[in-house]
Amino acid sequence: MTWVLVAAFLFNGQTSVLSDQKFYYEYDKCQEAVEVRRQILEATKPTHMENATYWVWCSQIPQEV
After folding, report:
1. 26 vs 56: CA distance, rounded Å
2. What is the pLDDT of residues 27-44, one digit of tens each?
């Protein structure tokens, strides 16, 4: 199975979605990246975006049949 990190943001009614554009072949490795990304987002969040909401998770990439 292949996983990718996904982050979604909600700020002032605007949404944004991003990925770290890296494939993870183990769910645990993706989860480790999620925790690191959350820490980075929290540490670098600009003061004008203190009310921003964000979610970070691992999503499985569907396999073609």
Report:
1. 17
2. 999 999 999 999 998 888
